[in-house]
Design goal:
The complex is a heterodimer of chains A (252) and B (215).
Chain A lengths: L2 E10 L2 E11 L4 E5 L6 H8 L7 E6 L2 E6 L5 E3 L2 H10 E4 L11 H11 L5 H15 L14 H13 L5 E5 L7 H16 L4 E4 L3 H7 L2 E6 L2 E6 L1 H6 L4 H10 L2
Parallel strand pairs in A: 3-9, 3-10, 7-8, 8-9
Antiparallel strand pairs in A: 1-2, 1-4, 4-5, 5-6, 10-11
Helix pairs in contact in A: 3-4, 3-5, 4-5, 5-6
Chain B lengths: L2 H37 L4 H16 L2 H16 L7 H26 L3 H9 L4 H31 L11 H12 L3 H27 L5
Helix pairs in contact in B: 1-4, 1-7, 1-8, 2-4, 3-4, 4-6, 5-6, 6-8, 7-8
The chains are: A alpha/beta (252), B mainly alpha (215).
Chain lengths: 252, 215
């Protein structure tokens, strides 16, 4: 298991956003998380990537506890030093890309490996160019984010996350801010990563994509996992009424 | 008094004006950043104190503040203020301008999308790296027009040192005008301030242009 999340609880001002959520991700697995907005999907991702702190439960990366609940019932995180290691395990691609506008595309990808991980500049740039080639935008290395289309920007964001060599890559609605015609090029890149057995968790509204690419689908609603399983089962033969209701909307 | 004697007499004042101007910027531009960061402190005592400081600096005339800094030590503690004139002027200007710059910086810092911080956090940047490498450069670009405004105001505000009888351009102009019954010193002073600000505009436009490479 690369990641295990056990009995995760998260509240915002007393409002329960995640209620006793448990799931795990195996090496090379692609997990899609679907569900209506406000169901807690993004919060779950933000807890897994440590952008939010959990109120209860356990987060285990590579068999090591990053967070657990102590005897008093409150969540305790590993020491700041250890957290650096856990952060290194996971990468996150945002809905809004969040590229650094004042850095060139190349610097967006190389700066963190150089200044956070201590990789040499030459090695970081070589690695970045390889990633840009893979994303089909090597000619944009010296451009700035504002000069790129949304689809290209998101591919840079994926390259930036990949450059840190994470064990697992999270995507928070990676195509929701894109025009339909730009969505395809981003999904193609994610599909390519899936073929290379990159471990990924994707929060998405792209049902055909989730069905085609993922090994497992989680349907979330109201802060709980309502249903999960093989994408063919969940999409074609959902067991829960709430799942059926949600998927019907996409069939139009 | 000929025009050229007038001009050369006033030249020493121009230098003094330049001193106030440059020392104020050197002190207040960085101090403003410290104030802006303390203003955002989670400790209510700290942020409350800073809020009060900014409020007083902006809420009272700079002229009055200069008088307080200069005469305060004498009236409050009975100190000898013979050599205190110039330090008092610089202290007054720096503390006043730092408050204005702090609010400009704060506005800039708060306008950076939270996604920038989150992206930096996920990539493992430390808090200091995030601020220095990711946030600050973007803040500087955003606040440049407001800073330019403030710097131009400072050029003109230096004339307030006249209140403490410091012989900068404006004080000298008034003095010479009175002694020579001539309007010329005021014209010279006016041209001086205008040219100074024209140079400020050119310099600031260059700096802004140097940050034009991204949006």
């Amino acid at each position: 298991m690369i990641l295990e999340m056990k009995n995760i609880e998260k509240r915002f001002d007393g409002l329960e956003v995640l209620k006793d959520i448990s799931f795990g991700v195996d090496h090379g697995e692609v997990v899609s998380i679907i569900g209506p907005s406000g169901s807690g999907k993004s919060t779950l991702l933000r807890c897994a990537t440590f952008l939010e702190t959990i109120d209860g439960g356990e987060i285990i990366y590579m068999g090591e506890k990053a967070a657990h609940t102590d005897a008093n019932g409150s969540a305790v995180y590993a020491s700041p030093h250890e957290m650096k290691k856990f952060r290194k395990y996971c990468g996150l691609v945002f809905q809004q890309f969040n590229l650094f506008p004042h850095y060139s595309i190349l610097k967006n990808i190389t700066d963190a490996p150089i200044h956070v991980q201590g990789v040499s500049k030459a090695e970081a740039e070589e690695n970045a160019m390889a990633l840009l080639r893979k994303m089909g935008i090597e000619d944009k290395a010296n451009a700035y984010p504002y000069q790129l289309s949304g689809g290209q920007q998101q591919r840079v964001a994926i390259a930036r996350a990949m450059a840190m060599k994470p064990e697992i890559l999270f995507f928070d609605e990676p195509t929701s801010a894109l025009d339909p015609e730009l969505t395809g090029e981003v999904l193609k890149v994610i599909r390519q990563l899936a073929e290379e057995k990159m471990t990924m968790v994707v929060v998405t509204h792209e049902m055909p994509f989730a069905k085609a690419v993922s090994n497992r689908v989680l349907f979330m609603d109201g802060g709980v996992i309502v249903e999960q399983g093989d994408p063919r089962d969940v999409f074609d033969n959902p067991q829960e009424e709430r799942t059926k209701q949600f998927l019907r909307v996409f069939e139009r | 008094m000929t025009f050229s004697t007038m001009l050369s007499t006033m030249a020493s004042g121009m230098w003094k004006t330049f001193l106030i101007f440059s020392l104020t910027l050197i002190g207040s531009l960085p101090l403003g950043m410290v104030v802006a960061l303390l203003r955002r402190s989670r400790l209510a005592v700290v942020s409350g104190f800073i809020k009060g400081y900014i409020s007083i600096m902006r809420g009272t005339p700079l002229m009055l503040q200069l008088l307080v800094w200069y005469f305060g030590p004498f009236y409050l503690f009975g100190w000898n203020i013979a050599n205190w004139r110039f330090p008092a002027i610089i202290l007054g200007f720096v503390l006043n301008y730092a408050a204005y710059f702090a609010e400009i910086y704060r506005g800039g810092i708060e306008s950076i999308p939270v996604g920038q911080y989150e992206a930096a956090e996920v990539l493992g940047y430390t808090k200091t790296q995030t601020f220095m490498k990711i946030i600050l450069p973007q803040v500087i670009k955003i606040i440049m027009p407001s800073v330019t405004n403030e710097v131009i105001t400072l050029v003109k505000d230096t004339s307030l040192a006249f209140t403490l009888a410091y012989a900068e351009v404006f004080s000298l102009a008034k003095q010479i005008s009175a002694s020579q019954s001539s309007f010329m010193p005021f014209l010279i002073a006016g041209v001086f301030y205008f040219v100074a600000n024209y140079l400020v505009e050119i310099a600031m436009a260059r700096i802004e242009k140097s940050m034009d490479y991204y949006k």
